[in-house]
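Run histidine kinase through structure prediction, thanks.
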Amino acid sequence: MRQWRLPSLRRRVLVGLLLSVFLLWPILILVGYLEIQNEAPPLKQVSMAMQSVVAQIDDKAPIEVICSRILAQQKLLEALTPNTADDAVLLWQVKHETAGMLLNLGRSYRLPDTDLIDGNHRLQIGDASFDVLQVTKGPWRIRLGLTSVTDLRLLWMLGKDIWIYLMVAFLVQLIPMFIAVSGGIRPLRQWSQRIAERKPDDLRPLEEAARYSELEPMSNALNTLLCQLRGKMDQERAFVQNAAHELRTPMAVISTQAHVLASATDDDTRQQAKLHLEHAAHRASHLIGQLLQLAQLETDHAPRPAQQLDVAQLLRLSLAQLFPLAERKAQELSLQAPDQLWVTVERDALQSIIDNLIGNAIRYVQEGGSIAVSLNLEGAYWQLQVSDNGPGIPLADRVRIFERFYRVADNTQPGTGLGLAIVKAACQRLGGSIQLGDGPEGRGTCFTVQIPMQALTH
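Sure, done. The structure for histidine kinase is below.
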């Protein structure tokens, strides 16, 4: 029962064919009606034949001869009678001045012997209406009557006949059309069956090429999606392996120092083991926090409430919290920003961008270096820049610098390689972008973040 509620290609074809029949029906009726109107009316056709008969009348010929000539034309007149109606009736009457009524023929109806002038007349005979033509030649008077057909009746008769032919054509077309549709969707059924039979971790592309050009885009899109999913799963495996590798070191230190702390016999050894234990625990906690933050940014697509924030004030507060770290390394930390810059944004994602960019700059810039933070408005976007005169990032490493756990080869500073990956994920979550360039005077680095004034909330 549920399958009948779902959209179906076969039903769409059936409905499409029926609609084409209904649309074609009035068009064919109109064409047939116009053709009949453009042709000579039936009574005119018959009158032309009757004129040829009248031309054969010779006043000197015997009455019997003339009547035989008229009767000889009966088949011709009957053949010219319009066949658009089953009840079409042809009446004709022949009268001589002296001989009187010679012929008065017709089915169920007879023309009246009334005084009429030559020409066309509309007479009501019984329950039927007739178009009557009268021609007089000498003593001969010939009348021809033909049942009248109104426009409405003509349209009805045309519609009835055309509808029968259209329904026959519809049934004839329906069978090959259903066969063609069934054959066309067979590859889709085969693909769905093959995919259903696969194991959950089997993301190989479909090897069979599409037989029809219309299915090729779907085949390519599906194979592209499978490749992307396979790449995503490979990234997740690498992510888990790297996370386990990064956690192994602090956990090993914690285990070792806990053993040393438990077995130490003097205060200096205990104090040293305690410091190492706290440092390892802090490193593990920081790594776990970054992993959770990155996972939340990348996988949590649920809408988050955005709020009106003064980005300039948030930057000043963040710099005030990070200033002690820069002061220990005698670094110059500056901010160039307007007094206020109100935007609609998700606070947690924005805070991750600020903390990681400025925190990385403080961590990797040498002692006595300078870090400049600027905030400005660029059209429908607001822009945050963090530049420094530190060691910089080689061009070869800039392509992968935003990957998870990626670190520059000759970097000796402690870190997890997750900070910039978190920044990129946060920018994407807010509908923005991040770019990496050279710092002032070609030294160091410059990270530029652009986010819409009405940032996304998912």
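The longest strand covers residues 128-137.
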